[in-house]
Each structure stands twice: as C-alpha cells, then as structure tokens.
Amino acid sequence: MLQTMILWVQHYGIPAIFLSNFIENVGIPLPIEAAYIAGQALITAHKYSYITILSVISLGQISGAVLSYFLGRRVSEKYLTGESQLSKIQKKIENWYQKHGPVTVFACRLIGYVRPWSSFVAGVARINFTMFLIFTVLGTVVLNVVALAITDYVVYAWINYEEMRVLITLSFSIGTIYMIVHGTRSYISNRKEKAD
Predict the structure, then answer these.
(1) What is the pLDDT of residues 117-139, one digit of tens each?
(2) What is the value of pTM for the model shown?
(3) In the chain, where the domains are located
(4) Cβ contacts of 13 within 8 Å, gap of 6 or more
C-alpha cells in the first residue's frame, strides 16, 4: 500500500500531499510516510520549496485534526450526556485534559497511530479550542520538520549507498521492535505497581 500511495502522491503532487495528510488526521489510517517521501522528492527535484512542502503537509494535518476535534465535540455534546457509563468515561477524559491538556495535545501530535485519534478525544473532552489549535500547530510543525529531515537523510542514503539498504532496513526494524518491547514492559511494570 505504501508504494501505491507514493505513486499516487507523486502523480497528483501538492493536492495529494494535502489530502492524504488531511484524511489520516481525520482518523482514516493511511501511510502518510508517502507524503513525506514524495514531498522530499519534490523538494530535491526543485519543483517546490521546503517551506511549501512543510506548509502543505502541516496544513493537511492541522485541517484534519480540526475536523476530528469538532466531530469529537459533536459526539460528546449529542451522545455523552447524563449518567451513562460513557458519560462517566467522558468526564474522566475531560478531567485529564483539564490537568494535562496542552502537554497531551502537543505530545499526541508526535506519536504516529495516536495522532489521528487524539484530536477526536480532545473534542470529546471539550477542551478549549484555541488551546487545542495552538498546541496542535506547534506539535505538527515540530513533527514535520523532524520527519522531513529524517526522510531526506534516509532517501539520500537509500539512493546513494545501495550497500546501506540492508543496514537502514535492519536499523528501522530493530528500533521498532525495541520500542514495542520497551513500551510493553513499561506498561506491564506500571500496571503491576498500580495493582500493588
């Protein structure tokens, strides 16, 4: 699917980069790495400037996040009222965001599979929209600057150093496995501590 997305984004250019990031941030899983790869290719080919690609990717993500936020807000206002079990969960989420809102919004923008759903949850929590937007923009821009830099380095190494392809693939695989194992251990350890 990633290869198909890369070809689609390369073929349709800026609109596809915007749209793929928008859709992913509404909550529909897409491999947005394709947008970074195609965007970096357009920068390298001098078809668009770095600022243009960074802006298009960021605006796509922010627009999708805003729509997701308002969908969450609508669900919360329409369906999560009264004393139902879901309403109680919504209150807990709202209390969490009251204490940790800005940090949570910012941090969630940096975490892959959390990012698309975090805006919906922020809407469900009914957090202040201005605060949500400020920290969404900050987190999104930080993420995209780093992601474009990493993409530039990896694509350059991939094209210019064929012998490094195995090392690059192996490094990403080991890094991913390490993060999964470490995250799982931390989660289990925290659960055990809370249970004791």
Answers:
(1) 888 888 888 888 999 999 999 99
(2) 0.76
(3) 2-160
(4) 38, 42, 47
